[in-house]
Amino acid sequence: MKARSNTKHSPLTLGAGALALALLTATAPASAQSRDPAYAAARASGQVGEKTDGYLGFPTAPSAELRHVIEDLNIKRKAVYAQKAQANNATVEEYAFTSGCLAIARTVAGEKYQAPDGSWQTRGAGAPLRDSRCP
Amino acid sequence: MNSLQLTNRARIATTLPMQGKQSGPDRSTWRAKAALGVLAGGAVALGGCVSVNAPDKPIVIELNINIKQEVIYRLAADAGNTIDENKDIF
Question: ipTM > 0.85?
Fold first, then answer.
C-alpha cells in the first residue's frame, strides 16, 4: 500500500513535469535546429540562394549585415562538410557538392537556386535544374 | 652602224649575276628555298599530330565524370542526414 502511494504523482506535479518538458523541447531545438530569422527572411525574399557548390550565395547585392549573417552560415557549413567528408573518405568539395545537390532539391517554390550554368533561378512547382551527376 | 641599230640592244646589267658577282644572291635564293621546304615539312608533320591526338581526349574526360558521380551517389544518404541534423545552417 505504501509503495504504491509513493509511485503515484499528484496532478500538479505531473502538470509541472509536462510543462517543463514542453519548454525544454520548445526552446532547445529552436536555438539549434531552426533558421536565423534574418536568414529565413532573406531566403524567402530571394536575396539568398543555394549554390551548386553546397554554399549560400547572393543573387542580388546584399547589405553588409546580410552578407555577415550568410558568410557566418557558410563557414559553419564548411566545418560540417569537412568533418563529414573525413568520416566518409571524401574531399570537402565532393561532400559539399553532394549536399548542394540535395539542398537545391529541397528548395521550396519562390526560393532562389543556382543552375549548372551558374545562372540564378527561382524554384517553381517542378523539379529544379541540377547537375547531371546529382543523385 | 646600221647593223647595230637593227639588232636588239643588250639591256644594262641590273642584277649582280649579270654583273658577274654571283656568290651573294645565289646563296640567298638557295636559303629561301630550303626554308620553304622546312616550313612545308613542318606543316605536314603538325597535321599528322592533331589527327592522332584527337580521339584520346574525350575518353579521359568521361572517366573523370564517372568517378565523380560514383562518389556523389556514395555520399548522398549521409549528406541528406547531415542537412536534417543541421537545419539551422541549411
Answer: no
